[in-house]
Design brief:
seven-stranded mixed β-sheet; 11 strands
Length: 120
């Protein structure tokens, strides 16, 4: 079993910055993919960004140039640095990790979610 703990959300004014973190712990062999998703009220959950163990990244068009995803493999941690935040970035942000467990099977785990609210 793997647990994800997110932190870093909050209330910020438009144009401000936040840094989200998500730490995984438990029976982990490796984590091929780490990512961040978000879900705004009344909308579907959508990909914000993800990163492979090799460092390849993918971003939603809406956040390109404003967000940077990074990971620390030694700490099983993924970060999302968000700059120049806009009111439309307001959502609950979830981390997702695709984990190869100690049994060498692949699992997907979600964080509990952290609220990001951007005021205009």
């Amino acid at each position: 079993q793997v647990q994800l703990v997110e932190s870093g959300g909050g209330l910020v004014q438009a144009g401000g910055s936040l840094r989200l973190s998500c730490i995984a712990s438990g029976s982990i062999f490796s984590i091929p993919v780490m990512g961040w998703y978000r879900q705004a009220p009344g909308k579907q959950r959508e990909l914000v960004a993800d990163i492979t163990s090799g460092g390849r990244t993918k971003y939603a068009d809406s956040v390109k140039g404003r967000c940077t995803i990074s990971r620390d493999n030694a700490k099983n941690t993924v970060y999302l640095q968000m700059n120049n935040l806009k009111p439309e970035d307001t959502a609950v942000y979830y981390c997702l990790m695709r984990v190869i467990g100690g049994d060498l099977a692949t699992y997907e785990y979600w964080g509990q979610g952290t609220q990001v609210t951007v005021s205009s």
